[in-house]
Specification:
Elements: E1 28-33, E2 38-43, E3 45-52, E4 55-60, E5 71-76, E6 82-86, E7 94-101, E8 111-116
Antiparallel strand pairs: 1-2, 1-8, 3-4, 4-7, 5-8, 6-7
């Protein structure tokens, strides 16, 4: 069996990262507790801002190429059945995460996870 070990894989010119073709990887992801806006684990997520109950702004460390990138969510709450979505004001570096009950009442989720796909700027 062969083994490959490397600390850096760069493009043919040796000046930048390898370009992924015909494949896609998540450009950012984050797992956090909404009530305290504390990131528990992440990649390319720079910060969270608690805007109000059930509303948190997520910031992306490396900007996306446009503001039409897709964001996928999951959430868990011990008391309520919640839905989660992207709110208004999505930019290349931030977006609003909105969690609420089926009756459209904003509520902080115990745990929220998001994943972003698309192209980096």
């Amino acid at each position: 069996m062969s083994e490959i070990r490397a600390t850096t894989i760069s493009d043919a010119a040796g000046t930048g990262p390898v370009t992924l073709t015909k494949q896609s990887a998540a450009k950012a992801w984050c797992h956090f507790t909404q009530a305290s806006a504390v990131i528990q684990d992440s990649f390319n997520a720079s910060s969270l801002t608690d805007a109000a109950v059930g509303r948190t702004y997520g910031s992306i460390a490396s900007a996306m190429s446009n503001n039409t990138y897709p964001v996928s969510f999951s959430q868990w709450d011990s008391v309520y059945f919640l839905g989660v979505s992207v709110g208004s004001s999505k930019t290349t570096t931030s977006f609003l995460i909105v969690c609420g009950t089926v009756g459209s009442v904003d509520n902080d989720a115990d745990q929220v996870t998001y994943t972003i796909h698309g192209d980096l700027a």
